[in-house]
Amino acid sequence: AQLSTMGAEDGSAPAEAGEDPPPPPRPGRMGACEVCDEAPPAKYRCPACAVATCSLACSKLHKTRGGGCSGKRDRAAFKDIREFTDADVINDYRFLEEALLEKDRAKRWRPEYTPGTEAAQRSERPPASAKIVATLTREARARGVELFCMPDGMARRVANTTFFDRRRNVMRWRVEWTFHAAGEGTRNDDGGVEKCRTSIEPAATAEDAELDESTTLLDALRVHLASGPGRASRLHRLRRFVDAMKGEDPEGSTTALAVHMEKEGCPANDRRHYRLDAGKTLRECLTGKQVVEFPRLHVTVLPEDEGKFREPDA
Predict the structure, then answer these.
(1) Closest CA to 175 of 217, 207, 218
(2) How does strand 146-148 pair with strand 290-292?
(3) Are 241 and 226 in contact (CB under 8 A)?
(4) β-strand 192-197 against 204-212: which pairing, if any?
(5) What is the pLDDT of residue 173?
(6) Is beta strand 184-189 parallel, antiparallel or unpaired with respect to 257-262?
(7) Which distant-in-sequence residues (6+ apart) come within 8 Å of 260 by Cβ?
(8) What is the DSSP letter of 32?
(9) N or C: fewer beta carbons within 10 Å in the chain?
(10) At what angle do helices 239-246 and 217-225 cross, to 10 degrees?
């Protein structure tokens, strides 16, 4: 009687003896919080590790546990195509857009170089237009030379100063010379290739920014081996080449210097070099050969450097 009266006064239904308590509330769709000890219903899920949390405090706490979590989704992670949704397609599309934006930003970015250095001077050069590259390739082909131009930004493409003089109908090549020290290079013994390097670095290097194709190799070498103010130290390193140049015939038809040019397309472990006639013009020497950007010539002394560079098979 007392139970019935109390229930009526509270306005609630009277409790019957032996009735079970109501079940606990069902957890949310993300389950319970994986950080709290009380495990309340989760409200957030980490994009990186998918840990469910119930509050900002729990979200920050899980980033400090273990190895630490960045909280950022791995946008390049693999996902099975069967699990793809429209949201995943949109995220991938935005990711590709950002990658293209970074590519465009990299093209516009210009590195800072020390003023006055060669790298700073080259960075000021604008990339060659497609018309210029096509003209060089066409005129080289007309001379029997197969010229290959590298993409903009490559070191040899930036350094190339070769141009075609339309008024004179002459190619003016950039040429890089390497004067090899004694015992440096490769020697062909009994049909094999034997590495022979007693000097890692060449004796010296030189370059001609605009060498007329009608110039003979011997005349070009005379310029680099001629004496002059401030060249004593350099000529000391090149004394074997200077002595060889002085030992030529009075007519200048023969010389003890040998000029070689690497044949393009050979394997790195079996390089071959053409032997060029130093008495011929640059145009005659390049005819029938492949050139990447500009010729790079190697100079040796005969007879001590005989066989240092392997020649192409006939």
Answers:
(1) 207
(2) parallel
(3) no
(4) unpaired
(5) 95
(6) unpaired
(7) 273, 274, 275, 276, 297, 298, 299, 300, 309
(8) B
(9) C
(10) 130
- Do 258 and 301 touch, CB atoms closer than 8 A? yes
CA-based nearest residue to 186, from 313, 312, 305: 305
Alpha helices (H) in 33-148, listed in sequence order? 56-64, 86-108, 118-123, 130-142
Cβ atoms within 10 Å, residue 8: 11
- What is the DSSP code string of 132-187? HHHHHHHHHHHTT-EEE-PPTTSHHHHH---EEETTTTEEEEEEEEEEPPTTEEEE
149 contacts 162 by C-beta, under 8 angstroms:
no
Q: Which residue has the tokens 């018309």?
A: 131
162: Cβ contacts below 8 Å, ≥ 6 apart: 136, 171, 172, 173, 174, 210, 293, 294
Question: CA torsion sign, 290 to 171 to 130 to 160?
Answer: positive
């397309």: which residue's tokens?
265
In angstroms, what CA-CA distances link 238 with 7, 111, 183, 248?
A: 116, 36, 14, 16
- Listed range (109-123, 141-155, 201-215) with the worst mean pLDDT: 109-123
Please identify which residue in the block is written with the tokens 């007392």. Answer: 2
Cα(180)–Cα(203) distance, rounded to whole angstroms? Answer: 5
Mean per-residue pLDDT, 33-44: 84
Check residue 226 and report its DSSP letter. Answer: -
Beta partners for residue 298, in sequence order: 178, 260
Query: Which tokens hold the place of 215?
Result: 């110039």
**Separation CA 140–CA 291 (nearest Å):** 9
Q: Among candidates 192, 112, 203, 125, which has minimal Cα distance to 160? A: 125
How many residues are recorded in the chain?
A: 314
In this structure, are residues 193 and 262 in contact, taking their beta carbons and an 8 Å threshold? Answer: no
Task: Determine if the pTM surpasses 0.85.
Answer: no
Query: 70: which 2 tokens?
Result: 């960045």
Quick one: what percent of the chain has pLDDT higher than 90? 28
Nearest Cα residue to 34 out of 15, 50, 10: 50
